[in-house]
Design brief:
single chain; 299 residues; 11 helices; 34% helix
Length: 299
């Protein structure tokens, strides 16, 4: 449904994306995850036919047409990162306009309004909408055509709770209908909730392509537990080595790197040595740390 073949895009001397090869198949949700400036939006705009590759190609739709072809654009619906609509129009009037633009039956308007939880605000002027409501209206516009491909650029950036539910419902419904969904994000929660696979872009390059489980495992493995003990039992580190080989003392703290699943056994081992735990802090690995490791090639 969506295929990047060694896609690269430069803006003057600035290379935004380098040699991206990635395929999203029908019935799959893929998230492009990465820090700001990593090439996420550029890649999505290329799939939407809004940017031409500097080299390589992007193909969209069941017949694998180049994204810049009009027939390929008809096969997709695209929600940009920032949406705006004429403030004097009502929400329903905006959707009516896009129905006419895309050749969609007017009956889809009520469905889209319901999906986006905008039923009660359909007759209000867009100028009275909050930022979250405007973003929900953008989701409703994206949902109007029943296209094989759905592209969403940072769809949750300005969404309120109702909007988040609408986004999750829209993406899951499209997946269940055998459509391909590609969305960008830098929010791990979006990925954990929806994505079948995660493409991690760093500095314009595909640094990793992971399943949701693989990403969660890599972050969990970078977790840290910090313990402050009333006393420091002699030989404690040596006894912890089979469980936590990387455990070290840092000042008055016992620092235990590793996944969360190891922590109960470590705590039991510490207590078995007669130590009293005064304070405990634990955290999972951060995306920013994973990005830096991927840039440096750390596995």
């Amino acid at each position: 449904m969506i295929r990047f073949e060694r896609f690269s895009k430069s803006f003057g001397a600035q290379r935004a994306v380098s040699d991206l090869t990635l395929e999203i198949v029908p019935g799959e949700i893929v998230s492009v995850l990465g820090p700001n400036g990593s090439g996420k939006t550029t890649s999505l705009k290329a799939a939407a036919g809004l940017l031409h590759p500097t080299s390589g190609a992007v193909f969209v739709g069941g017949r694998g047409e180049r994204a810049s072809e009009p027939s390929a654009r008809r096969a997709l619906s695209f929600l940009p990162q920032k949406v705006s609509f004429p403030e004097s129009l009502s929400g329903r009037e905006v959707l009516d306009f896009y129905c006419a633009l895309r050749g969609v039956a007017r009956g889809r308007v009520d469905e889209a309004l319901k999906m986006a939880s905008l039923n009660g605000a359909a007759s209000r002027a867009v100028g009275t909408y909050s930022g979250g409501m405007t973003q929900r209206l953008g989701l409703a516009v994206a949902a109007l055509p029943d296209t094989p491909v759905l592209l969403l650029d940072e769809p949750t950036a300005a969404l309120d709770p109702d909007g988040l539910c609408a986004f999750y419902g829209l993406a899951e419904a499209r997946r269940h209908a055998g459509k391909a969904v590609l969305f960008t994000s830098h929010q791990l929660g979006d990925v954990e909730r929806l994505a079948d696979r995660v493409a991690v872009l760093v500095a314009g390059k595909l640094a990793a392509l992971l399943t949701q489980r693989e990403l969660a495992d890599r972050l969990a493995a970078r977790g840290v537990m910090r313990l402050r003990l009333e006393t420091r039992p002699p030989g404690l580190l040596e006894r912890l080595r089979p469980l936590a080989p990387a455990a070290v003392w840092s000042g008055e703290e016992l620092v235990v790197p590793g996944p969360a699943r190891l922590r109960p056994a470590v705590l039991d081992a510490v207590r078995a040595e007669g130590a009293t735990i005064v304070d405990l802090m634990a955290s999972d690995g951060r995306l920013e740390d994973l990005y830096r490791e991927l840039v440096g090639g750390t596995p």
